[in-house]
C-alpha cells in the first residue's frame, strides 16, 4: 500500500541517506563493527557531515532543527536497517532519540551550547543511563545516589545494559537526589567520560546488535558540577524521563516497522531466487500465502505508525498511545522476522544473511525501552483505570 506521509524534502533526504550508506557504511565496515563491538567514530562523524545524525538539534546549534518531525528519523531507520545495518541504526538512534532530546528540550542554555554543536556533527556521542543491576522496569528502585556538595554532586552507584555506554562522551544519568521514591526524589545528571571515578565496566556480549556497544558503568565518588544538572533544577528527573517517553517508544516502533518491512523484502527476493523441486520456493502455495501475510502486516504496521508519527509531529502522541505502538509493532516485527527466517531455510540461520542478524537484533525490541509487559500494563491501566 502506498504511503503518503513523505514529501519532496523527505525523499531528497532519503537520497542523502542512501549516498551515505554507499560511501561510508559498506558490508566490510559492518563486519568490522561486529568484530569490534562498536561503530567506529569516523563513520559517525561522516554521518554528521552528511547531516543524518543529531537531526533534532536546532539550526542555531548547527543541527537540522527537525525537532518534532520524526519522518526524517524514520527514513534513516528504513534505509539503514533495510541495508542490513542494525547496529549503525541503533547507534544513530541512541544519539537522536535518547540523548539529544534531553538537552534540546530540557537543557539549560549553557548545556545546549556545550553539547549540541558536537552532537550535531557526530563528534560528541551521548547515552542514557537509567537501568541498574537491581532495577529496570521498576525505575524508582534505583540505588545510584547524587549527594549535594559545594558546587555540584558526588555520585555513587552503577548502571547496566547502557547502549553506547562505552563509546559515549556524555551520559544522561538517572540518579537519586532525594530520599524515598517519590517522583521528586530523582534528577538527571550529565556524567562525562573521563570524570574521576567514572568507570566503564565490561562491554556486554549480546545475542544481537553485535556492532553496537552495551556497557556496565560504575560511579565511585564522581564529582559532577552543578552545571551538569539537566534543566538546572533538582527533583525533575522522573518527570523529564516521562516527557521523552512518547518519542522513545515511537522510535522503537519505527525501527520495528523498518525491520519488518526489510524482512518482507529480503524474504520475497530470496524465495523468488531459490529453487526446489524444479520451481522457485516462492511458487509453493505455502510461501505465497506467507508472503501475502507479511505484505499485509507491513501495510497495516506502517499505516498505524505513520499516523503515530503525525500525531507526534502535532505534539498529540500520548505516552499511552506510544506504549501501544511500541508493543504492537515489536510483536509484529518478531513474527515477520520469524517467518522470514523460516522461508530462508538454513540460510536464515546464518548471520551472513541480513534476515538472521535482524532476527537476533529484534529480540531486544520487546525488552528495552520498557518491556512489552510494562507497555501492556500502561495501556490496560488507562482502560480499566489506575488501581
Ligand atoms: C541490549 C540492551 C540495551 C539496553 N539499553 C539501555 C539503555 O541504553 N539505557 C537504559 O537505561 N537501559 C537500557 N536497557 C535496559 C532495559 O531497558 C531493561 O532491561 C528493561 O527495561 C527491563 O528491565 P530489567 O532487565 O531489569 O527486567 P525486569 O524489570 O527485572 O523484568 C523481568 C521480567 O519481569 C517482567 N515485569 C517486570 N515488572 C512487571 C510488571 N509490573 N508487570 C508485568 N511484568 C513485569 C518484565 O516484563 C520482564 O519480562 C537495555 C537492555 C538491553 C538488553
From TrEMBL:
Listed PROSITE patterns: ACYL_COA_DH_1, ACYL_COA_DH_2
Domain (Acyl-CoA dehydrogenase/oxidase C-terminal) ranges: 237-383
Cofactor(s) it depends on: FAD
Keywords: FAD, Flavoprotein, Oxidoreductase
Domain Acyl-CoA oxidase/dehydrogenase middle intervals: 127-222
One Pfam family of this chain: Acyl-CoA_dh_N
Chloroplast is among the record's keywords: no
Residues annotated as domain Acyl-CoA dehydrogenase/oxidase N-terminal: 8-123
PANTHER family: ACYL-COA DEHYDROGENASE (PTHR43884), ISOVALERYL-COA DEHYDROGENASE, MITOCHONDRIAL-RELATED (PTHR43884:SF12)
Family classification: Belongs to the acyl-CoA dehydrogenase family.
Protein name per its UniProtKB record: Acyl-CoA dehydrogenase family protein
Protein source organism: Microbacterium lacus
